Amino acid sequence: MCAEAVSATTAAKEAATKALADVPAEPGAAKPDPILVADNITRRFGGLQAVNADHLEVQRGAITALIGPNGAGKTTMFNLLTGFDRPNTGRWSFDGQPLNRVGAHRVARKGMVRTFQLTKALSKMTVMDNMRLGAVNQIGENFFAGLLGLWHKQEREVTQRANELLERFKLDTKKDDFAGSLSGGQRKLLEMARALMAKPKMIMLDEPMAGVNPALTQSLLGHVKELREDGMTVLFVEHDMDMVHDISDWVVVMGQGAILTEGRPAEVMSNQAVIDAYLGEHHDGAEHDADDAPDGESRTGGTNAEEDAIDVVDADKGQSKDNPKNDESESQ
Length: 332
Ligand SMILES: Nc1ncnc2c1ncn2[C@@H]1O[C@H](COP(=O)(O)OP(=O)(O)OP(=O)(O)O)[C@@H](O)[C@H]1O
Ligand SMILES: [Mg+2]
Description:
The structure is a single chain. The protein is α/β, with parallel strands linked by helices. It has helices spanning 3-20, 74-81, 104-109, 127-133, 143-147, 150-168, 184-196, 214-229, 241-247, 265-269, 272-282, 305-316; strands at 34-45, 48-59, 63-67, 89-94, 97-98, 112-114, 202-206, 233-237, 250-255, 258-263. It has one domain (3-121, 182-316): P-loop containing nucleotide triphosphate hydrolases (Rossmann fold). It is 38% helix and 19% strand. The longest helix has 19 residues, at 150-168. The chain is globular and about 50 Å long. Residues 282-332 have low confidence and may be disordered. The site of adenosine-5'-triphosphate (ATP) has 15 residues, from β2 and α2.
C-alpha cells in the first residue's frame, strides 16, 4: 500500500474511533451515526430460537465485528438483514429506508451487500463472469433503456469496473479461469471483489478469513481496511480474535441468538463473560488451511451449534467455569 493510502487508512480509522469514543459498551448501544438500525429481530427454526436480537445499531464508516460461538446466530442474522431469509418478528432500516420484506436483490440495490461463509463463487463460470453477476442497477435490466442502446454503455462500464477490482484484488491474471480452479483464499477474494461490483455503502462479510492461508490473510485484512478508507461501512463475522482486534472499531457479541454485549475491541476482549464463553474456546484455536487448497473451506459452520449454545448460557450468567471443550481444537 502506498504512503498516501496508509495515511488515509489511519484517518478513516481515527474518525471511526473518535465517533465511537463516547458510546457506552452495552448491548444495543445507540451510535452517533448508524447506517443500520434493527429492532426486535427474531427467527425460530422449529423449537430453536436462532436469533433474538432486541436492538442493534451499526455505525456508518466503521468496521464492526460480529463475534460469538458456533451456532450463536451470526449467519442467520446476516441472512435476515440482507433479505436472504425472513424473520418471525422485527423491523430494520438501512440508511434511513425500511428493509422489512425487501428481497436480497433489492437490498443489494439499496447499497447493502454480503458475502457468504461458504463461498458462493460459481465454479463453472469464469472469474470475469462471476464479477459481472455482482453488478446490480444495470441499465440493461431495464427494457426501455435497452431499446435506447444504453445497454452497451453499461456493459462497458461493468467490464471496466470488474477489471479494476480484479486488479486491486490481484485476480486479474485469473479472469478467464473458471472460479472452481481458484484456491479457497482466492475465492474469498473473488467474493469480496464481486460484492464490490454493486458499489455498496455497506458490506457484510461472513468469515472472510476462514480457510485462508496466513499469507493471503494479511492481504484480505488490508482489503477490509481499504473498504473503510473508501468510506464504506463493514460488518464482519470472524472467530480469530487477533484479527478482530487488529481491524475492528467496534465489536458486537452474540450468544444464543441474542446480543450479549458490545464495545471497543479491548473492552469486549477483557469482558470475563466473553472470555469464558468464547475466547477460552477459540483464542488459541485459529487455524488455517496449510495449503490454501481449492477446497479450502476449513469448516461447514453450525455443526457444533447445540453444544456451543450451552456454553453461552453460562457466560450470560457471568459464571466462570471449566470449559471441557477448551482442549478440543476445533478447526475454524
Ligand atoms: N436453515 C436452518 N434450519 C434449521 N436450523 C438452522 C438453520 N440455519 C441455522 N440453524 C440453526 O440456527 C442456529 C444459528 O446458526 P447460525 O448459522 O446463524 O450460527 P453462526 O453464529 O453463524 O455459527 P458459526 O460460527 O458456526 O457459523 C444454529 O443452532 C443452527 O444450527
Ligand atoms: Mg456462521
